[in-house]
Design a protein that fits this description.
The protein is mainly beta and 67 residues long. The protein has one domain. It has a 3-stranded antiparallel beta sheet with strand order 1-3-2, covered by helices on one side. The chain is elongated and about 60 Å long. The two termini are 16 Å apart. The relative contact order is 0.34.
């Protein structure tokens, strides 16, 4: 039998909903313990200047192994 880590991070994929990510976690034997969101930025050139704009977000769940 394979030993699974007690904690594992799951990132919500661009074509995936939050609920389907949680279902994927449960299929692998984990329950959600923490949710984090990080903004994603891109550099855009406007009028010869580099401007940093938000272009999305990255949602990550930390899962704990079901006991």
């Amino acid at each position: 039998m394979q030993v699974m880590p007690k904690k594992k991070k799951f990132e919500v994929q661009p074509d995936e909903s939050i609920s389907s990510c949680i279902e994927r976690m449960e299929r692998e034997g984990y329950i959600p313990a923490r949710r984090t969101e990080e903004p994603v930025f891109q550099e855009v050139e406007r009028d010869g200047e580099l401007v940093i704009e938000p272009c999305g977000r990255r949602i990550t769940f930390e899962g704990k192994l079901k006991s």
